[in-house]
Structures are given as structure tokens and as C-alpha cells.
Amino acid sequence: MRVRKLWTFMAAGLVAPALWVAFAGTVLLARGRPTPTQAIFVLSGDPAGYRLEVALGLMRQTGASRLIVSVNSIGPVYDPRPDILAYVRSHGLPADELRFIGPAHSTAQEAGWAAALVRRCGWHTVALVTSPYHTRRAGWLFRRAVRGAKVNVLASHEPFHAGLWWKRAGDREIVLTEWLKGISSIGYVLRGPAARDPGVTC
Fold first, then answer.
1. What domains can you pick out in the chain, each with its CATH number?
2. CA atoms within 13 A on the CB side of 47
3. Which DSSP state fits 194?
4. Model confidence over 5-55: pLDDT tens digits?
5. Dihedral sign, CA of 138, 141, 146, 149?
6. Please, which residues have CB within 8 angstroms of residue 139's CB and are 6 or more apart in sequence?
7. Is CB count within 10 Å lower at the N or C end of the chain?
8. Whole-prediction pTM value?
């Protein structure tokens, strides 16, 4: 009986890590579908513009009247806002529909900004666009923070191999980092990110 229990314990010890490896990348995904919305948030950390590209398409598909772009660096060396403004104008988006928030230091901070804007602007439906591997955690944080509005999460077209993440160094780093950030977000289970007004107009 003791030998059987030992083998069972050893087998469980081998199976559990194998299952985690198999599904660690897929668990991070939480992709929604375009639905009518009032405002679209583009989260920071998108130097290649994958998130912004999808968001511009969604502006036309969903009827949104506001595009809120979060930036993570504004400084004397480089300010991304003029380039972003020029890009969205080149795609036919009027400048008065664009808002900038930031610099952002965390997804929780962005969720808090969104919560304040939703409350002040009276929005009932909002969407956020982020990288595929970031959709699960970002969606959870935004829904914990935003009250009184439906939050839809959509993924950019950024390359991410969820089912075979361990084969590529970049995907390995992404998955491990995202899991660590997810664990560190456990503190928001009891209380979501605090609403903090970013100080931009509706």
C-alpha cells in the first residue's frame, strides 16, 4: 500500500508540471469579439503598433467615438504621442477622437484610469486592446476596476505561439513573465485597482 501511494505521489509530481507546460500559454488567452462600444483603450507596451492597428479597425467596426491610448514613456529624449497622432490621422481618425493617458507603469494603473473615465464620462460599454498573452490578466484587472460598464477584451495580431511557447525564447520569456505578474496581481482579488482620474477630457 505504501509503495502504491509513493508511485501515485511521484506520478502526480510528474503530470502536474507537464500539464502546466502544455497549457501555460493557452491559459493566458481571453479573446473577445468586436461588439458595439463607446470607447476603446489601447494599453501601453506596444512599440511595433500591433495594438494600435487593431484598435483603429475596431473604431470603424464598433462605432466607438473615443480612442484612449496609454503610453509608458514621455520624456525629453522621445515622446511617442506625435508619432501616434500622425499615424491615426493617416488612417482617417479625427484628432478630436483621440486621447492620451500615461505614462503608465502597470496594467492595474491603466485599469484605474479607465474606471475613473468610465464613471466621469458615463460610458456603458468599453473595449481594450492588448497583446494576446496579456488579454486574460488585463481583462481581469479592468473588470475588477471598472464598475457599471461592460468590458470587452480584444487581442492584437502580435505573434505569440501559445500552444508551443516553450520552443521560442521570446515566448518563453513572455509566458513566465506574465504568470509572475498574474501571481503578483492576487492582491486585487478582494478589491480591484483604485479609480484615479487621468485628467483628460471625455
1. 28-188 (3.40.50.620)
2. 2
3. P
4. 444 444 344 455 667 677 888 999 998 899 999 999 999 988 889 999 999
5. positive
6. 30, 32, 128, 151, 153
7. N
8. 0.89
168: cell is 521560442
C-alpha grid cell, residue 34: 468586436
Contact 100, 113 (CB under 8 A): no
**Cell numbers found for residue 12:** 502526480
Helix (H, G, I), strand (E, B) or coil at 126: strand
Q: What Cα–Cα distance (Å) separates residue 102 from each residue in 1, 5, 112, 139, 185?
A: 61, 55, 12, 19, 20
CA–CA separation, 109 and 94 (whole Å): 27
Burial class (CB in 10 A: 0-12, 13-18, 19+), 28: buried
From edge to edge, which strands make up the β-sheet containing 98-101? 98-101, 66-70, 39-42, 125-130, 150-155
d(CA 48, CA 73): 15
Q: What is the pLDDT of residues 56-95, one digit of tens each?
A: 999 999 999 999 999 987 777 888 999 999 999 999 999 9
